[in-house]
Amino acid sequence: MRLSSFNYNLPKNLIVQKPIRPRDYSRLFAVDSNKDKIFHRKFYNVVDFLKKGDVLVVNNSKVFPARFLGKKEGGGKAEIFLLRDKSNGIFEALLGNFKEKNKKYLFEGNLPQGDKKIITVGDGFYCEVLEFLGGGRWMIKFNKKGKNLWKFIYKFGKAPTPPYIKRLSNLREYQTVYAKNKGSVAAPTAGFHFTKSLIGKLKKRGVDFEEITLHVGRGTFEPIRTDKIEQHKMRGEWAYISVKTAKAINKAKKEKRRIIAVGTTTTRTLESFADEKGLLNFGAKEVDLYIYPPYNFKIIDGLITNFHLPESSLMILVSAFLRFKNKEWKISKIIDIYKKAVAKKYRFYSFGDAMLIV
Predict the structure, then answer these.
(1) If DSSP codes are grouped into helix, strand and coil, which group holds residue 51?
(2) What is the DSSP track for 22-33?
(3) Are residues 232 and 316 both part of a single domain?
(4) Residue 115 pLDDT > 90, yes or no?
(5) Does 161 map to a domain?
(6) Is the same domain home to 99 and 176?
(7) Which residues share a beta bridge with 28?
């Protein structure tokens, strides 16, 4: 299947730069697959589409301030974008404009004398470039570890919002209300629409909540560079499912209750931990599952997601789920839905509106 099949035209004014307040006042594009109907509501109306016994599964990964901005010693912009914590102060990272060996970069501080491979960020906090990993990635090592390291990361780091967000954001808005396990360099944005009040209403209705963890990394948003979507490969991201969560979801599946994933990261995690019989395993591992149509979903019965970039693996996953829910729909159904969303002036991407498919 060609990648170009997943392209669509989006006016730039629909790419929103900041979240709506309150969060659950975002709009909801609801797709009822059984009745083949579409509803346009507010996200707080999601209560009307869920029922007692449904299980909402969320990704509780917490975003940390992974971007450091500064300037090169000789002038010009410079940037560090942390990708993954490798422990003991070592990170996999992207280094903006880092092409020449031994080039110095300044980040709000003075460069220590005598070492040409040092990047500083101020207050005696710096990192050393260890090696080039390929694909624009480098291994770097900070001069601090443990709690002391994270103290400086939170002091100097900035929210790692996507490049299409032109305004400076902050971690309070670029974070779900249920985030707890630190490790993501991009937010699982489908969860942005939930407020503590809305979660309380859903629980009162009898909807259960379960949590998984997938630390969102570069892999989730890696652009597809192949003409045929089947040739794309996902980068691995660390994920964890507890014994409690696995047991609860397996019990719900046995009782024919619906499992609704909040976000594509949650979806890929659940499907990656499923066995051939459709039972969910527990544990921790690297997840690199790439879901594209046709795909037989083993765990999820519903999906809450945002409106994604054209020709992205996230959009393709949603298309696969649309086909799975109603096999008579063509793959082009995702384009039809996106065209309707554009016509109705839905808000797109990270701080945009939500879609529900049940």
Answers:
(1) coil
(2) SGGGSEEEEEET
(3) yes
(4) no
(5) no
(6) no
(7) 41, 354
